[in-house]
Amino acid sequence: MSLEETLAIELTVNGERVESTVPVRQHLVDFLRTELGLTGSHIGCEHGICGACSVRVDGAVVRGCLMLAVQADGAEVVTIEGLTDSGEIADLQEMFVERNALQCGYCTPGMLITAAELFDIGLPASRENIREFLSGNFCRCTGYHAIVDAVEATLKQRLSR
Amino acid sequence: MKAPRFHYVRPESLDATLGLLAEYGEDARILAGGQSLMPTLNMRLSQPKVLIDINRIEALKGIAVHDGMVRIGALARHVEVMNSPIVAEALPLIAEAMPHVAHVAVRNRGTFGGSIALADPSAEMPACILALGASVVVDGVRGRRTIAADDFFIGLYETAREPDELLVEVLLPPQKPGHVSVFMELSRRHGDFAIAGIACHARVAGGVINDARLAYFGSEAKPVLGTRTMAILNGKAWPTASNEVVNAALDEDLDPIGNTFGSPATKLHLQKVLTRRVLDAAVQRARAP
Question: Residues A116-119: contacts with CB within 8 Å, 24+ apart?
């Protein structure tokens, strides 16, 4: 077996410039968690089913486990830490607490980052649209109802402002 | 689970990619959106020696109309196809099917060409291009070839693309006036792989169906045209053809493979139910477009 192959990358993570040398086979979430200490993005299934690793790359939510760190070279990455610091979804995060939309919290960063894209797109705030949009994110605690409640309530609150 | 070791290359041009494919052939895998390849790497179901990342090749991107055909570049992401005004206008079948392709995060990254090249038997896009009679363009150092969708899908994850060739684009004929498209699938959860599904394109006037193309997916080893069913339907008013006749034709056309989502008998039954729903919808859409 050959030696671990590495490559130098440069990217922006939560607004900060990052330079690193990474194993070419390392996926983006492992890089964010182990190299940068950004443990808000969770690792669940590591094959693109659960959505716990969702991160924003160049403005779009993607599976962090289905993208190599080397592919993020030159990209702008935003994790739940960056999204929280910017205050972009502070209202949604408060609503998650208010509506009991999380229990163990494992799926929550992925849910929030996916819901943030739903807000950006500006789909009509029907429960059906919300369920469809979040259908790629698993939650094993809540039964989803409270999550849909929180997203719907936040959308309505934003529209009434 | 972590991906095994591989050699990673990121060519900047099509020529460089074709050169790498000629050099490594079956030892190489093309990394496009990675939404199917990355899981197989992480689960170590695939251990390529070389991973060729084509994401920076501009020539493979974009959606455009050229010489009366819609050209979808291999690297067009599902989300770009879904939001494309060209697709909405000229390819209503693709537009209707795209929201069924996986989930938002996967559509943001997954590519149209990757879905066609992988030829997953449950995937939506292979069935759509088959129903539309599209062509697949592959390129290699030995030259460029255009392959009819009818000849492209050979078997389970098996296509007419050779190991030293790259799928570069798909050419699709825009829907003509008087034609209708219908896409339907059954899945456990929205966005999951289909248990049974049909992509349909036909000319319908006064309830009479002509030139019907029914591409079945989710139940077979590859997307297949229901050729006997299509022959029975053509030139006749729907729903005059009796259920028994259509069902008998489907018994001949289809040979479902069972999996955890259904036995062969269940899948055959579901395809029969979907066939009636699809044809009902086709006639209805032709009346009230």
Answer: A116/A56, A116/A61, A116/A83, A116/A88, A116/A89, A116/A92, A117/A56, A117/A60, A117/A61, A117/B104, A118/A151, A118/A155, A119/A89, A119/A92, A119/A154, A119/A155, A119/A158
